Each structure stands twice: as C-alpha cells, then as structure tokens.
Amino acid sequence: MSRTKRNSSRLLSSVALSGCCLTVFGVCETASGAVQWAQWITGTENFPSSVSVGSLPGPNAVTYNGSSLIRQTGAGTDYWSPSAPYLSGSVTNAPTPAHMIGVVDFAASHSITFGSPVTNPFVAIVGLGSATEQTQWTFDSPFTIHSFGTGFFGGAGTLTDIGGNTLQGDEGSGVIQFLGTFSSISWTIANGEQSWTDEANITGITIGVVPAPGGLTALGMASVLVVRRRRN
After folding, report:
1. What does the domain layout of the chain look like in residue ranges?
2. What phi, psi does 125 have (nearest 5°)?
3. DSSP letter at 95?
4. Per the confidence metrics, is the pTM higher than 0.85?
5. pLDDT tens-digit series, residues 108-164
6. Contact 51, 73 (CB under 8 A)
7. Fewer CB atoms near the end CB (10 Å): N or C, the chain?
C-alpha cells in the first residue's frame, strides 16, 4: 500500500471516530457522545399560540411555536422520570429534569425553529396519546424511532411509525431523530388529547443534539479532511 493510501485510510478512520456527519468520499457518521438537551429559558402558555425559547450548545437559540399547557424552565415535576424509555445505543442520557414544553393540540400546527441549523436533532417525547386516543403527529420530514417505553404517565408506552412521516402514540414515551441538517421541524396533530386544564392530557417534548467534537461543524471537518489529503 502506498504512503498516500495509508494516510488516506488513517484520515477516514479518524473522521469515523470523530462522530461528525460527513458525506465526503462516501463516509457518513452520526455524532457520538452524550446528547445535550435544550435548556428552556422563557416563554408563554396560551391558546391559540404560545412561544417558548431555549438554548442548545453553541449557544444556539431554539424556539417552540404552537400551543402549550405547561412550560418548565428547570423547576417542577420531572416528567422525564423514569429515564428508561429515552435510553438506547444512540442516546445514553435522558432529557434534563424539569425542562419541557407541554404540547396541546389546539394550535393548527406546531414548530421548533433553530437559531442556526443543527445536524441530526433528537426529539424526546413523553405521553403521546392514550389507549382511547391514539394520537398522530405528522412531521414535515422523516424520522427514526430510537426507543420507547412506559414513562411518567404509565400506560402502554408505545410509539409507532405508521408511514407518511406520522408518529402514533399509545401513551408513548421515547426518542425520535431526524437525520440531516435542519433549520426547523414542524408537525400537525390528529386525534389529540384535548384538554386545556388537565396536564395528564398533554404530550411533553424537548430537543437535543450531539455537538461536533471540538465545536467543529461537519462542513469544517470535511474541509480539514480535504486539506490534509491534498498535503499527503
């Protein structure tokens, strides 16, 4: 094997271990490590529209628009307990206690907007639907279900991808992920649990990302890779 090929192999191995998502030379790896979940800072609780603002690593502002019953900013009930439904081979840490948006279905649509684009964001969900109201959330992009189980509200705890970018829950708690780079994520709700005063009929959400190592973006890592290969 030539020196150039050996160096290229080492570089590709280094990129794979770094966890950045790259599509250079056919390499695409998802960032690895602990998920950094949003810290919700401020907002309103209102119908038909409410806005809550939080932060992700960077710092990167994250804004929820829709209708919410409760908004936790570090105090109150820990709806992310037990943690088991949120853990998997891809997610090693549950959402931050008492940081959550309690979504209700009075708004026609709901959205999460990022101050700057994020890669492969996670969405943690607690209590989607019930045995009598199997709620569907239809997103504007495909998603992957990483984990689900019985969460704070008990029940079956199932999350199902029923096609058409639609997630269905029977008191489902767990984590889904959107692969790619996103400036926003939006969804509509069908067959929701309609109650403005009963927090048992909410679905809680939060957002998380895995930062690129050393704060480098995927594009930045790709640039480093190309420069180093040219030098070799």
Report:
1. 1-31+213-232, 33-211
2. -135, 135
3. P
4. no
5. 899 999 999 999 999 999 999 988 889 999 999 999 999 999 999 999 999 999 999
6. no
7. N
